Fold:
Amino acid sequence: MSSPADEQMRALAALAVPLLGLTAMLVLVTAGAEAWRYALLLDSRTDAVPAGPLHASDVLVVTGGVVSLLASALAGAVTLGWLVHANAAAAQAAAVTPARPGWQLVVGVLVPGMNLVVPGAVLAEVEHAALGQDPNRRPHPSRLVIGWWVIWSVGLVLAGTAILWNLRSGVQARADGVLLHVATDLVAGVVAITTIVVVRRLTRLLSPVKLAGTRRMVVIRVPR
Structure:
């Protein structure tokens, strides 16, 4: 029988996956809009750029930025809820007490600096328990989890750098800032896509489909 943590984890995974997919699509579209803005900035150095394309690029960048930020926040909240319940389900499967309570996990994901370490460490612990490894041994994360951890960390560093870069002034600083935002959006899209793979894999490991609940086909007679 499934535990409440299992049921909550599956429900949140089913909601997180499409939200992460939407987020990936939006941030990639925004990256394209930022790249267009950069191309217009380059053209403006040698020739006058019509007001129409400039206005259209500004609208796309601002709209894409706001919508993708809202989608990212919603997808992040749901995925964080999934992580809390996956952590509880993993601890229950290993018959151990969770290494950290849910509120500490949430703080570790949201606080700058801590969020470079805590999310990856928790995913490694969840994967370790989901694979049925010895709870007394140190987790050895898979390449998937390590890859997610690296991409996640790079994305956080780029996002922080982009925020600080906006404080600079000047045409060149603005152009460089546009490129930085393109890179940030592209990495954010990769993070969202990789997170989908991680969520699906760990959910399947922690709560596999029960064979007893599937329909079985029985051969009654083979015609000659």
Residues 4-208 form one domain. The chain has six helices and no strands.
